[in-house]
Design a protein that fits this description.
heterodimer; A: 117 residues; mainly beta; 6-stranded mixed sheet; 4-stranded antiparallel sheet; 10 strands; 0% helix; globular; B: 107 residues; 7-stranded mixed sheet; 3-stranded antiparallel sheet
């Protein structure tokens, strides 16, 4: 049974960057996809992008192209999502999710990123 | 980008009743590449259905999905108290997008 554990909540200033981690255990990390989905307070879900560690290349939603970087470290079974040029609208819970590149199960517990001055 | 519109926004039903949730796509979703998720307050979403009608591991058979093209449906045959939550559809036929969600509440 795969489990995903994400890093803790962050408070960031506008214009800065945030890097969220997602550590997987109980599964074959390299061969499956790790995807990132965010959820603004009281809002719906928004896919940001994903990576299959064994292939190494991430793909991103057009909305986040140039501002998000998704990476994976096979040696520690950890994926990362870095979002730059933060603005208040980026305040959200950021989830990682494992498995198939196109549907997501299971999910991490979520990481709240708050952007405020 | 394929826009998914879920209806109704809120559905009020009683335990034991049948729930029918709809998801409409702005253009045809290729190969029925559509999934459904359940989300409870403060928790991450849980995958229920993928490929429009395949139940995910561990999902009770009271949950079923159907549809193709631009019209998809999630049916819960007989509502249990733990089924009251928000439900999202997601397409992966062209990039990945989610619907805005349907809130299933106790009547």
């Amino acid at each position: 049974q795969v489990q995903l554990v994400q890093s803790g909540a962050e408070v960031k200033k506008p214009g800065s960057s945030v890097k969220v981690s997602c550590k997987a255990s109980g599964g074959t990390f390299s061969s499956y996809a790790i995807s990132w989905v965010r959820q603004a307070p009281g809002q719906g879900l928004e896919w940001m992008g994903g990576i299959i560690p064994i292939f190494g290349t991430a793909n991103y939603a057009q909305k986040f192209q140039g501002r998000v970087t998704i990476t994976a470290d096979e040696s520690t079974s950890t994926a990362y999502m870095e979002l730059s040029s933060l603005r208040s609208e980026d305040t959200a819970v950021y989830y990682c999710a494992w498995g198939h590149p196109n549907w997501f199960a299971p999910w991490g517990q979520g990481t709240l990123v708050t952007v405020c001055s | 980008e394929i826009v998914l519109t879920q209806s109704p926004a809120t559905l009020s039903l009683s335990p034991g009743e049948r729930a029918t949730l709809s998801c409409g796509a702005s253009q045809s979703v290729s190969s029925s590449y559509l999934a459904w998720y359940q989300q409870k307050p403060g928790l991450a979403p849980r995958l229920l259905i993928y490929d429009a009608s395949s139940r995910a591991t561990g999902i009770p058979d009271r949950f079923s999905g159907s549809g193709s093209g631009t019209d998809f449906t999630l049916t819960i045959s007989r509502l249990e108290p733990e089924d009251f939550a928000v439900y999202y559809c997601q397409q992966y036929g062209s990039s990945i997008t989610f619907g805005q969600g349907t809130r299933l509440e106790i009547k």
